[in-house]
Amino acid sequence: MQRLQRRVLAMVVLALLLAAVPTAAQAKGASAATISGGGPGGLPGGPIDLKGDGEPGSGTDLANLAASSGVFALLFEDSSSGALATAPPGARGSRYTITWTFPNGAGNENKVRQSVWPYAAGGPLTFMASGQPVLDTTTKGGWYRAGDDLRTSLIALGLPRRGALALPATTPATPAPAVDSPGRPSPESATLPHRGSLWVAPVVGLLLVGAAALALALSRRSGPGTAAR
């Protein structure tokens, strides 16, 4: 009886220990992030560090930054909403790096790096390389087009206050000149008389005048003769 009680007690203790240890599936939120880069000299005040609860929906700066930069869309195969297959065209501006810290189930930490272009034309861009170890798996990676809230959030955290780069102006297409069909007169020539018809009217008029004069002469000759003296 005592042996059975010991086994039951050991199983209960083991179950409590397993429940207390976070697994990879449960610990998906980042515990910290460091923002660095931005070109020669880096950030004026040095790298920006964020710590706290990075679980999605927690409302912290860390969780909001992860959501707006598309971290969870690029980490796992089943969260690919918003990811892009290739890099979109357009100027990108300064590049920054966010190094995310994810605690794993073994009591260690995984570092995942993500490139960010907050001032890119058309909206902020982010990129995460595939194959980075995280939470007992590897990152899916890819490109992500973020909303402008990512730029404003990063500015609030300490990035330079800059606007988004402008998209290149589109030049309207110039209409091609009209090409006349073979055998069809152009619109200009359709309103002009043919060169050959310019001499027809005077010639016809002269012929009519000559015909009238000839008829008058013949009528005078065929009239009654003069009386005999």
Written overview of the protein:
This protein is α+β, with helices and mostly antiparallel strands and 229 residues long. It has a domain at 20-157. 30% of the residues lie in helices and 20% in strands. The strands form two sheets. Strands 2-1-4-5-6-9-3 form a seven-stranded antiparallel β-sheet. The chain has a two-stranded antiparallel sheet with strand order 7-8. The longest helix has 22 residues, at 200-221.
Structural class: alpha+beta
Radius of gyration: 45 Å
- In what order do the strands lie side by side in the largest sheet? 2-1-4-5-6-9-3
Q: Mean pLDDT, as a whole number?
A: 76
Q: How many β-strands, per DSSP?
A: 9
- Mass-distribution shape: rod-shaped
The major sheet is characterized as: 7 strands, antiparallel
How far from one another are the termini?
185 Å
Strand content: 15-25%
Write the layout of secondary structure elements.
Blueprint: H1 2-20, E1 30-37, E2 48-54, H2 61-68, H3 71-75, E3 83-84, E4 96-103, E5 109-117, E6 125-128, E7 133-134, E8 137-138, E9 142-145, H4 148-157, H5 187-190, H6 200-221
List keywords for this structure.
229 residues; alpha+beta; 30% helix
Task: Briefly say what this structure is.
With about 230 residues, the chain is α+β, with helices and mostly antiparallel strands. It contains six helices and nine strands, in the order H-E-E-H-H-E-E-E-E-E-E-E-H-H-H.
